[in-house]
């Protein structure tokens, strides 16, 4: 892994704030013990998180060393400064299973132009030698950069290969561990739920026992209350009610007896009256029957003469009923231009009288000698 630790505005031994940037090449150690340290520190973390931990460690040591050196020592001997940082930081990162392959100072600068002010007296010489050494420096820098890149690529390839293997093994172990952990968690959860269910069952049984005891006490209290209420009702309601009921029963029986006797007397009265009326009706009926029998015998004996006598007896009554309305009339005036017309009307009424009687009674008045004389034209004229 390539890291670039950077410390900004860190005060040196002389109190000058400078900013230093470095470049570090690190990798995970392959030795079994050291690899175990690395697993303990970084198991389950991403590459970014691993880089952040190592970078913070390097920056911490870099900051501590800057505080012990002067600006001139840092600037003039960068390799020594870088070697010092590498020596100080190596044990700490080594305990994390990390090896520092290289560490170089990339840049050193400040914000107060302290570095630009150093060696003003040698500026001209430095400028002169600078032009000469530019080509050599560039050449050496190119060569060194190429070598560093090659080394970096080789190390990176080896580190990536080992990292892939470690990652694969790590994932396999992680899956195995997760399976075991999940199994244990499931067992623990089931055991917990089972125990919780047992405890809940015990609590419920105790609650039921308490409820049973409370219910028994409540039932006893209710039974006592029922007994008290019954006694109270017997004293306040039942006894008075029984007395009142007995009283009402006696009164009802007296009324009933009275009504029965009254009804019996009334029935006897009605029976006696009925018998008397029946006897009276029977006697009247017998008398009427005897009268009718005698009349029938007489009618049978006298024949048509008896019938004629009955009709003659009834004629005055019929005439009286017919003439009843005329009894209330004071005067009748008949208007006619001809005197013979009134006589004709009277004669016509007399002539129709035997026919009406024959139609009503079956008796022919024209066969009776007395009536034959009355129905002659001379009699009618005389009438």
UniProtKB/TrEMBL annotation:
Q: Where is the Band domain?
A: 38-220
GO terms under biological process: protein localization to plasma membrane; regulation of cell-cell adhesion mediated by cadherin; regulation of epiboly involved in gastrulation with mouth forming second; regulation of myoblast differentiation
- Where, per UniProt, does this protein localize? Membrane; Endosome
Quick one: where is this thing mainly located?
membrane
Cited InterPro entries: Band_7, Band_7/SPFH_dom_sf, Flotillin_C, Flotillin_fam
**Which keywords does this chain's UniProt record carry?**
Coiled coil, Endosome, Membrane
| CDD domains cross-referenced by the UniProt entry | SPFH_flotillin
- Which is one GO molecular function term here? protease binding
* Gene Ontology terms: cellular component: endosome; flotillin complex
- Which Pfam families does its entry note? Band_7, Flot
Q: Does the keyword Membrane apply?
A: yes
Q: Which residues form a coiled coil?
A: 167-239
- Family under the similarity heading: Belongs to the band 7/mec-2 family. Flotillin subfamily.
How does the annotation summarize its subunit structure? Answer: Heterooligomeric complex.
Q: What is this protein called?
A: Flotillin
Q: Which organism is it from?
A: Amphilophus citrinellus
